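Re: that backbone. Tokens:
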């Protein structure tokens, strides 16, 4: 997982991930690592869609990663994750790679579904399932409050604790 406002480089252009990013990497023995992530894709028409990417490890190379977890998996788990890294395999596993929604079908949803496929998320929990509520609350809060986004975000962080229906995150004894 990459920290918020982390620098990345794609197609020779530098940008910043405002919300952070998460993906998984497979490496079998001494072979070249393969990364799989899910992101929003801007179409030439102006529409947006989702896409599975195999470039996250390159795009975020050198980034200050907030956390890296390494787990040893067996051959079957490896093959499941490899298949899931393909759009056809993701669809077969019940993930919609054609639709990106920051609040409900995003990089976190993708990685947690991958974890489910290998038994590390047995209840198939997606911590972003209830994020639509939170996004609406944040949008409402930031709404017409002036242009000082830093001040608004700081106030928002202070006030998040007042939201009594915020989603509960995973406490699944997976670690």
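Recovered sequence:
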């Amino acid at each position: 997982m990459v920290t918020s406002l982390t620098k990345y480089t794609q197609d020779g252009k530098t940008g910043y991930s405002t919300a952070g990013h998460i993906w998984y990497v497979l490496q079998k023995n001494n072979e070249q690592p393969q990364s799989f992530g899910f992101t929003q894709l801007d179409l030439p028409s102006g529409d947006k869609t989702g896409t599975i990417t195999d470039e996250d490890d390159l795009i975020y190379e050198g980034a200050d990663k907030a956390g890296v977890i390494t787990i040893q998996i067996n051959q079957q788990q490896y093959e499941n994750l490899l298949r899931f890294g393909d759009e056809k395999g993701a669809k077969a596993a019940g993930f919609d790679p054609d639709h990106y929604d920051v609040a409900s079908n995003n990089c976190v949803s993708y990685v947690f579904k991958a974890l489910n496929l290998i038994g590390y998320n047995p209840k198939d929990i997606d911590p972003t399932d209830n994020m639509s509520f939170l996004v609406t609350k944040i949008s409402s809060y930031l709404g017409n409050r002036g242009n000082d986004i830093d001040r608004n975000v700081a106030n928002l962080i202070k006030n998040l604790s007042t939201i009594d229906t915020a989603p509960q995150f995973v406490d699944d004894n997976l670690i």
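The helical segments are 56-59, 75-84, 87-92, 107-117, 131-142, 149-159. Residues 131-142 form the longest helix (12 residues).
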